[in-house]
Amino acid sequence: MNDVTHTEAELAELDRIARQIDIDAPAERVWELVARPGWYINDGTVEAEPDLRYEGDVAVVRHPSLGEFRFRTVELDRPRYAAFRWIGTPYRDDSTPSTLVEFWIDERDGGGVTLRVVESGFSSLADDPAAWLKEREGNDKGWLTELAAGKEFVEQIAAAPTRQP
After folding, report:
1. Which residues, at least 6 apart from 117, have a Cβ–Cβ distance to it below 8 Å?
2. pLDDT (tens digit, 9 = 90+) per residue, 50-70?
């Protein structure tokens, strides 16, 4: 456990993670990835064909080494905004508090987009700030890796030659 104490204002700021990355691809191409629940469950490489199934309105993503993760779609506004409730991991179920993961796709002047992500609600995961700050720490670093993986995946698809019938 960390002996460092935080002020209420610092804890409020730490309740969310915000990251962004520029991607050289059209908004629609980025949307195809972002609208897929749990696309960021990977080992640093986005899967073209993920193990994704639905149990009612819950998307279940199964990764061979990371396990099973559950998501509920909150909102999809093609091709600009997608929000998912990260409702379960191998260690949680639907009744446990969760974080909200939101994506924005903003077109850039001159082409391409900026993909922004905000994950919020970490303080709802535990009463003890040290517990939820520890969980947040992994996601804080993870979003850098996942956005880079998403960028690589989308840019490879965007650069691929189009098949002619």
Report:
1. 17, 18, 19, 20, 101, 102, 103, 104, 143, 147
2. 899 998 888 999 988 888 889
Q: Is the pLDDT of residue 21 over 90?
A: yes
Name the percent of the chain in helix, strand, coil, to the closest 5.
Answer: 30, 35, 35
Domain boundary assignment for the chain: 8-159
What digits encode the pLDDT tens for the residues 80-91? 999 999 887 655
Which CATH number fits the domain 8-159, given the four candidates 3.40.50.150, 3.30.530.20, 3.30.1330.30, 3.20.20.100?
Answer: 3.30.530.20
81-88 sheet: strands from edge to edge = 16-23, 113-120, 99-107, 81-88, 67-77, 58-63, 51-55
pTM score above 0.90: no
